[in-house]
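subagent[fold] <- orchestrator: predict structure for attached chain, return tokens only, no commentary.
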Amino acid sequence: MSVSCGVECVLILGFSRWMWKRCTYVGSDDSASWSNATPEEFEPIPRICRLILAVYESDLHNPQYQPSGGYRLNPDWVVKRVTYEQTLGHAPPYIIYLDHDHREIVLAIRGLNLIKESDYKLLLDNRLGRQMFDGGYVHHGLLKSAIWLLNEEGETLKRLWVENGSDYTMVFTGHSLGSGVAALLAVIVVNHRDRLGGVPRSKVRCYAVAPARCMSLNLAVKYADVIHSAILQCRIRIINELWMISCQERQLLWKIFLSHSFGLDAFDSLPCLLFLVCLRDTFIPEGRKLRDPRRLYAPGRMYHIVERKFCRCGRFPPEVRTAIPVEGRFEHIVLSCNATSDHGIIWIEREAEKALQMLRESSSSETITTPPKVQKLERLKTIEKEHKDALQKALSLNIPHAAVPAEDKPPQDEAEPSQCDNEDASKTKSQSSGGTTNWDQVVEKLFKKNESGDLVVQSDIEDEAPTPAPAPAPS
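subagent[fold] -> orchestrator:
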């Protein structure tokens, strides 16, 4: 009797401790140790959010859903606008915008449409460890969407780059589901910059707003100098958990979302199922998560907009924290009634603009009486050092496939092409229709098939290759 009472007390205390940690954990705890962002590096985020919002408009000359202050863009600079009818379910709607004021070529992709079946097909077209790419794992459906986008718009992006003096920055951006497509699109372009007119890596940028989990941790850290993710407070994690669940759970979700009769039972089972998925994910140890190379993460450098704190009611003036996290990359579940609104692009744009104004006011007040605390050149050096430190930390934590790129290796565009590369390039071009680049064939260069026909990382095959026997010593 006493033993059973003791076991019950231990269970009650353990559950109470877990509930206390869950209920008192707030979004600001994820970035408590991060440094504050500067106005210069955070400046593009609100502007990019407005460009993503512009994708929702059918006529930018007569906008219907413009945010406070308007879109602040020139409708005549919109090169192309693509709707669901034109993408045929291969990608969410997007626009291509030529921003002459900031010297940028922007491809902006909208987020998940809750009533579009094609978006759910794209979202659920994955299973854990299905797609290997560039020395890691990525989301299969989002990668296919990114390749389709490059096949459709690669020549347009290349033409805009060349026509504007090969000097504009090429920006890929998206919200929620679109952020995952944009991030993988940027990774492909960085690996094949010569296909878009030789754009240098420093001229490629990706801004993922409320990012989706789309790449493994080694890739998320590797491309942190290119991809920048913006997150408001808690952000919803349910969308990010959908492609990490089992086949049985996926089939149940598919019936719930795409059923023609959305009864009460379907809506009752959905929150319960997603809660159990998140609950299961909470009890996975951090070390086990880091050792799993298939696990997907939010990409790149993080910008965390914090506006609520523990035991403080209401919203407060937002502050922006930034880092390239390796451990605890927004892996905790935050119980909050604002989780849905924190994921919305409208709220993110509003709070990002407010945070930018506060950063500018703080910076201007400092420079009136004293020199700025962080000079621009010093900040650039700090950002580069943070990226190198994150890569080194990934190595020290034994994260699979993590590697520090060689500094003395010339960039892809500046390296001397070998005869094999020339043959591959001519072969790709000859097989492409109309002399344009076939991005399906280009991306396949980062894959290699094993004997069973499955795609595997090329470095893995080289590691698994048998070591040749040493030559016999001469007699």
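orchestrator: received. Logging for downstream: The two ends are 81 Å apart (CA to CA). The chain has one domain: 9-368.
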